[in-house]
Amino acid sequence: MEGSSSATVLPDEFFRGGGTDIAGKMGMMWEQARALVIVPVLRLSVTVCLAMSVMLFVERVYTGIVIILIKLLRRRPHQQYKWEELEEDLELGNSAYPMVLVQIPMYNEKEVYQLSIGAACGLSWPSDRIIIQVLDDSTDPAIKDLVEVECRRWANKGINIKYEIRGNRKGYKAGALKEGMKHSYVKNCDFVAIFDADFQPDPDFLRRTLPFLVHNPDVALVQARWKFVNADECLMTRMQEMSLDYHFTVEQEVGSATYAFFGFNGTAGVWRISAVNEAGGWKDRTTVEDMDLAVRASLKGWKFVYVGDVKVKNELPSTFKAYRYQQHRWSCGPANLFRKMAMEIAKNKKVSAWKKLYVIYSFFFVRKIVAHLVTFIFYCVVLPATVLVPEVQVPKWGAVYIPSTITLLNAVGTPRSLHLMVFWVLFENVMSLHRTKATFIGLFEAGRVNEWVVTEKLGDALKFKLASKAFKKPPIRIAERVHLVEGIVGIYLFFCGCYDVVFGKNRYFIYLFFQSVAFFVAGFGYVGTFVPS
Fold first, then answer.
1. What's the distance, CA 264 to chain centroid?
2. In degrees to the nearest 10, what's the CA dihedral of 152, 155, 160, 165?
3. Residue 124 in contact with residue 95, Cβ under 8 Å?
4. Cβ(119)–Cβ(198) below 8 Å
5. What value does the mean pLDDT of the chain take?
6. What pLDDT is recorded for position 477?
7. In the chain, is it the N or the C terminus that has fewer CB atoms within a 10 Å radius of its CB?
8. Rounded CA gap, 45 and 392, in Å?
9. Taking the CB of residue 90, how many other CB atoms lie within 10 A of it?
10. What DSSP character marks residue 394?
């Protein structure tokens, strides 16, 4: 059809002829659709994806420059904010220490409940100035009994520990935290530290974080860094470590040093209770109640401090199922919160225009939406499609240079895993499928927008099972291990790779074959730790 018009009206001869003309007619229809629909749509998609890539690239380079300046200038929280060690007063005694509430929300945490309760009860703080509050939403009566017995055991040792339950799980974690703040004894507390069930703070945690709150009345939150006890358990946990290390060493650090704002990580942090109350308390309107509270408190003018040298041990999800559920919640929630709060942030008059721009554009739009969409749509859908439609070309800077730079900038957070960068890229592209789907669910408030599945923690359970002499490997249920969507994407990428080998000129086939294998591996469930039932 080289000399044909682009008109949509087909010649009469097209509708005449025998069955031998069917292939020709189909070919003509394909060329028409290709010229009028597919090529323009794909060109538009490439343009939009390139624009999103540039946004992400600029944001990554900016944060990279800022973190280098922070390190060169040695801008540490102790220099930006007043910090003096809290000591007992000869006249006031322990009253010189503020009253602290430690909340531990949990749900059927059989494998790790002892770790978090024990670590919280071991915090170095005057016993009459601290209350440990275990918020147990467990639905398994046996586990509830175990947790209650553990609390009673520590109470018999003289620890001021409260075991609290409620009649329903309304609001999930946010609901439990909100209910916990209603108890009469909380009114005497000035600050609240929050630890998820698998988090184990060191004894000096409060002594290293609370001085920022005590000596700086405009600070609402002190966030510590996570330290992963099972990062070496499998390749999937190493990949998670790389992603989260960048989040903590770069994103949190930059937000704290430049705008005194970052997203609360939901655990391993200490809040000023008056700031929580002023911001409206805990809300369960999204699956990221921690980020919701942080944004609302920031809009009230409160400042946040990130203390990267204070690390709290915790566990990474080591099964693919648990990680998928976690990533759905972490991707859907921010997108949904952005939908709900974008206008509220823009209209706020208590914070500067630069801070509002940072929160709306950098924190929400680029990191929580664009990053997920461009990773999957561009590198797993649009770029492979250009192999099938050679009329549409992706410039080398967009296909190679920008993603390579972004990858290197992300990887510097975990130097020990630089040799795993290729695996990290392939794995992140696989996970971007679920993050993109979750982002759209959050933006459009679709069916699973408020789905909350508690991330499964294994503790030492897997180790004990594998070490047991009586352990017998259970039969594998194919339906539980096979993930159809990953398999379909893998087939699409493999087909595009084969087409590029035979007909293409882009030489994308090397990437396409490796990426298709990654999707197949995930599709057949060979990712993460296999947990025997």
1. 12
2. 0
3. no
4. no
5. 90
6. 62
7. C
8. 10
9. 7
10. -
DSSP state of 6: -
- 319 in helix, strand or coil? strand
DSSP string, 222-243: EEEEEEETTTTSSHHHHHHHHH
d(CA 387, CA 521): 23
pLDDT digits (tens, 9 = 90+) for 326-337: 999 999 999 999
Task: Convert 11-44 to b/e letters by CB count within 10 Å (16 or more is b).
Answer: eeeeeeeeeeeeeeeeebeeebebeeebeeebee
Beta-carbon-side half-sphere exposure of residue 24 (alpha carbons within 13 Å): 11
Longest Cα–Cα distance in the chain: 106
H or E stretch at 101? strand 100-106
Is residue 28 very low, low, confident or very high in pLDDT (cuts 50, 70, 90)? confident
Q: Is residue 218 flagged as an active site residue?
A: no
Cβ(221)–Cβ(293) under 8 Å?
no
Nearest-angstrom CA–CA distance, 147 and 109: 9
| % the chain with pLDDT above 70 | 91
- Give pLDDT tens digits for 209-243: 999 999 999 999 999 999 999 999 999 999 999 99
**Which listed residue (137, 198, 292, 500) is catalytic?**
137
CA distance 224 to 195: 11
CA distance 201 to 294: 21
How far apart, in Å, are the Cα atoms of 255 and each of 263, 271, 307, 443, 486? 9, 17, 12, 24, 35
Entry pTM = 0.90
Least confident of 102-106, 120-124, 280-284, 417-421: 417-421
Active-site residue (options: 245, 284, 290, 500): 290
The C-alpha atoms of residue 177 and residue 133 are separated, in whole angstroms, by 10
Tell me, what's the pLDDT at 470? 46
Helical segments of 74-156, H only: 77-80, 113-121, 141-155
Q: Residue 412: which pLDDT band, with cuts at 50, 70 and 90?
A: confident
CA 361 vs. chain centroid, Å, equals: 18
Residue 529: CB atoms within 10 Å: 17
Helix, strand, coil percentages in the chain from 3-state DSSP, rounded to 5: 60, 10, 30
DSSP state of 418: G
Count of alpha carbons within 13 angstroms of residue 449, beta-carbon side: 18
381/299 Cα distance (integer angstroms): 38
Lowest mean pLDDT across 86-95, 120-129, 339-348: 86-95
- Report long-range pairs for 408-414 (Cβ below 8 Å, ≥24 apart): 409/60, 409/61, 409/64, 410/60, 410/242, 410/243, 410/246, 411/242, 411/246, 412/246, 413/242, 413/245, 413/246, 413/247, 413/248, 413/249, 413/250, 414/241, 414/242, 414/245, 414/246
Which residues have a Cβ under 8 Å from the Cβ of 154 and sit 6 or more positions away? 117, 118, 121, 132, 161
**Residue 103 DSSP SS3:** strand
